[in-house]
Each structure stands twice: as structure tokens, then as C-alpha cells.
Predict the 3D structure of the following.
Amino acid sequence: MTAPVPPTRGYAICAEARAGTIYLCRLLASTGQLGRPAEYFHTPERARALRSDPESELAKIASEAATPNGVYGLKLFSAHFDLVAKTGWVERLPGLAFVHVRRRDLLGQAVSLARAIQTRQYKAADAAVGEPRYDPDLIADCLARTAYGQARWECWFARNGLDPLRLDYEDVVAGPEAAVAAVAQRLWIEGAPAVDWSQIELRVQRDEKSEDWRRRFAAERGDRAYLDGGRLFSRWRRGPAFARFFLGGR
């Protein structure tokens, strides 16, 4: 039996919630060659441990997230980044590449997030702990939160001269094997690791209720005379400088 190779290269999936990252992580992990990507930075307890001893904790995470060939995988949202921003994880993790996962249907993503917040059902197999109800304020908040998080990632990549592999949720769903092959290619893994479909049990949660919420929200909150964020960033004389405070470097 071949001994596992120490982690030497890997990737971080950078995204916002409800962009299909659970599905993508399952696909990648099922190959047995592309790491075990998961949210390793998401709890305050793990973040405190990382800040206390980043070098050893990151080594543990890389080993935990790696397949026997030494490839590891991580997933994080912008909120997780904030928890571990000062740990030097980008520099300390070996051979780190980036995968930016987006969802072209931003409103659909916001609707999905609103339902998940209400029900705590982040996968179809999870038991719902609450009933979903149409809440336009919550959808609006999720829409703004998601758009802002995406903008933060875009600014971070651009400001640091990073060129991530970009995958859209819709393309991953339409061509899962192609998405897996793209990640493998970015990591210089020869061939296309095969997806083990026996390990993939996820299904789309979107249903007619989601489509009804979308129609109602667009009808109630649509305003083609207002460009989002304009009053905060554009109509105030110092708005652009204020925007850089939120989206630019320190």
C-alpha cells in the first residue's frame, strides 16, 4: 500500500453562499485525487486556533483536506476570510491556487439564501427546522449581501494580481465532469479524474415556491430609475472614496 504524500499543492474555492459549492466539493472529493474540500475556516473556535498558532493549524488543515496524492482543497466565503485574515493562510499553504465560483442568477441565489436562512436547510437531505415564508426585506438583504461579497472577492483577486479559475454554478450543473477537469488542469494533474457518482446524492432545491418568490420580489422591488448603491456611493460627493473604504485595500 502506497503511503500518503504530504500536502504539496491545493486550491481554495472562494464563493458566497448558495452558489452550488457543496455540490462542487462533493464532485471533487469523489474523485479521490482532488482533495477533500470543505469549510475548514468557518467556526470561531477554529479561527481562534488558527490565529493562535497559524503554522501548525494550517498544516493540520492541509493534511485533513488532502487526498493521498498530496492535493488538498478548501472552501471559504468572504465572512470566513475575515475570521482568518491575519493568519497568513494564503502564503503558508503550499502550492495554493484559487477557484472563484459564482452564480450568474444573482436573484436566484438571494432567494435560495433567504429560504436556507429561514429553514436552516442547506441541503435537500437536511431536515427543515422552520417554514419558508416570502419576506422581501430578507431577500433584498440577501441580494445585497451576496453582491457585496462577490465584489469583495473580485477586488481581492484584482488587487493582488491573482487569476483564479472561474466557474459558474450554472455551468457546473450543466457539465460537472468539465468543472472537475478544469480544477484538475489548474493543479497540473494529468488526465481528468473520474467522478464517483455513487457518492453524489445532492439534488437541486429550487422549486415553484422559489420561482414565485422571484416573480413577486421583482414586481414589488423593481425600480429601473434607481441603480443599486447609487445614493451611497454616487450621489454623495465623496461617495467614490467611501466605496474604496469598503472594497479597496487597507
User: Anything to note?
Assistant: The CA atoms of residues 103 and 170 lie 7 Å apart. The longest helix spans residues 136-159.
